[in-house]
What we know:
By secondary structure, this protein is mostly helical. The protein contains 4 helices and no strands.
Amino acid sequence: MLNQDGTICFASELMETVDAFLFDYEAVRGPLDNEFHRCLAVSYALGVMRRNIDAIWDRLAEEAVFGPLDPRKVFEECVGECELETASLRTAVGEELRRRGWLSDSSSP
């Protein structure tokens, strides 16, 4: 989560959670039919996680401690959009997705 350079990245932990979900899903429902269904299941799980995170962040933003401040906007102002960091993260995530078998080798980086 906390990298040696001080950056924070939850990608591995999120992927581990999705892997655990897939394991549980297949234990109950049986193996997924093919790569397409596996990718759909991964995508669906990520969508549910995103909705959960949005709900948590939305509710946290309502706390009186923030007053008129929106913590999401504060985050965006602090982090901004660094194209180099985003590209680096996408590359690292792509490598990890391939290692886990979530992306085919023919997928673009």
